[in-house]
Amino acid sequence: MAGENMPESSTYGVSADRGSLRIKRLLSEDGSLWITIDDNECHYLKVLCDEVFGRANYVGSAVWQKKYGAKSDSKYLSESHDYVLAYANSKERMTVHRLARTAEQDSRYKNPDNDPRGPWTSGDLLRNEARDYAIYEIVGPSGRKHWPPEGTSWRFTKEKFAELVADNRIWFGTKGDNVPRLKRFLDEVADSVPATTWWEHKDVGHNDEAKKEIRSLFESNLFDTPKPERLLKRIIELSSLPGDIVLDSFAGSGTTGAVAHKMGRRWIMVELGEHCHTHIIPRLKKVIDGEDQGGISKAVNWKGGGGFRYYRLAPSLIVNDRWGNPVINPEYNAAQLAEALAKLEGFNYAPSETHWWQHGHSSERDFIYVTTQNLSAEQLQALADEVGPERSLLVCCAAFHGITAAKAAERWPNLTLKKIPKMVLARCEWGHDDYSLNVANLPMAEIEKAEPAAPGNGARKTKSRKAAPVNAGQVGLFGENEQ
């Protein structure tokens, strides 16, 4: 599942089109995209998304009541809602999950006749079409006669209606003279209900609630339109299950990640602004430590746990020179280049202290060597001799001369030659629709053991800095419990 809070911009059409296309490539086969958007841009966005996803994959739109009162200074209409657009990668494979019944919904069930089957509510017995077999007279307990209005008919045949009366499933009112209605018992209805397209602020929050949540976490508030946690909870529970991955490419204040974490989802957030450090990371630390008890925390019984990893986007590996030719970015030094290419080729970057040509490995006998030099046949021969027949080496170099690639493969079966930057261009986004970059993680840090306090010294207790216990529903993005 992917979520977007589309920014307003003069380049909105271009950014939305490109953003939706890139998000679609990232979605799983049963994945979906959910976008909050205001009334000014909603309809333009739908046309763009129809083009990217196809109209057949349009799931629907919900109206979110973001304000609960009218603005007295509005010149025309007082704006009080935003839209939530939903698109599926493949609508046939996507599932929109149902919502748990609420106490308010259950409170609509009463038991005025003390039926032993418990609380019930009543439903209409009329059908909005005339069917001859279902047009007949009904006589109530008071003797009052009932016929379906013209153009309608009863929902049941006369025989079926008699069975329902015998089973005490027809309600004529306390005096027995009301139009008959069908009793529906609480214990016979499903535990869940489908979501409607009207999302009231009392159910999913509003703008003021979102601002209060931010102010409770931070002294300063840099966000004019944050989203309430309850709104994100609604979207996430409709579109995903515990353990699924939630992506937000406009992280903002980090609400999506915080809510996804509390709900036992794995998550990825992307943010270019400095509030990644001023808001998102501090907020997530409070979530993990169990210090954030606002938002949906009490509703999901959040006590803390889990963890996250922070990655900084590196400079582009390939840039164009002054003639427009693709070259390696000069910002990369030798070590950075070797590490980047090792990741691209699926190797673990681990430079050897004893073998100058071992910059990384994929197994005990398979290695990678990266150089910006032009290698001659003599240099390649010396390299092949040192590698030996029991090992294999991927050589990434600017060029090689004195021998063709085909001849090199025959002459040195333990070497595989690839040219830079050609090999990099073949792995870039504009060359493929897949995202096959292997993200290498830092090693897991060991949890420090707390030292036992000296007995009877009356020392003040200090809070442990180690992470809170991992919540049972929270797993790591990369398959392990993060610390």
TrEMBL record:
<dbReference type="InterPro" id="IPR002941">
    <property type="entry name" value="DNA_methylase_N4/N6"/>
</dbReference>
<dbReference type="GO" id="GO:0003677">
    <property type="term" value="F:DNA binding"/>
</dbReference>
<keyword id="KW-0808">Transferase</keyword>
<dbReference type="Pfam" id="PF01555">
    <property type="entry name" value="N6_N4_Mtase"/>
</dbReference>
<dbReference type="GO" id="GO:0008170">
    <property type="term" value="F:N-methyltransferase activity"/>
</dbReference>
<protein>
    <recommendedName>
        <fullName>site-specific DNA-methyltransferase (adenine-specific)</fullName>
        <ecNumber>2.1.1.72</ecNumber>
    </recommendedName>
</protein>
<dbReference type="GO" id="GO:0032259">
    <property type="term" value="P:methylation"/>
</dbReference>
<keyword id="KW-0489">Methyltransferase</keyword>
<feature type="region of interest" description="Disordered">
    <location>
        <begin position="101"/>
        <end position="124"/>
    </location>
</feature>
<dbReference type="GO" id="GO:0009007">
    <property type="term" value="F:site-specific DNA-methyltransferase (adenine-specific) activity"/>
</dbReference>
<keyword id="KW-0949">S-adenosyl-L-methionine</keyword>
<dbReference type="InterPro" id="IPR029063">
    <property type="entry name" value="SAM-dependent_MTases_sf"/>
</dbReference>
<feature type="compositionally biased region" description="Basic and acidic residues">
    <location>
        <begin position="101"/>
        <end position="116"/>
    </location>
</feature>
<comment type="similarity">
    <text>Belongs to the N(4)/N(6)-methyltransferase family.</text>
</comment>
<feature type="domain" description="DNA methylase N-4/N-6">
    <location>
        <begin position="23"/>
        <end position="278"/>
    </location>
</feature>
<dbReference type="InterPro" id="IPR002295">
    <property type="entry name" value="N4/N6-MTase_EcoPI_Mod-like"/>
</dbReference>
<feature type="region of interest" description="Disordered">
    <location>
        <begin position="451"/>
        <end position="483"/>
    </location>
</feature>
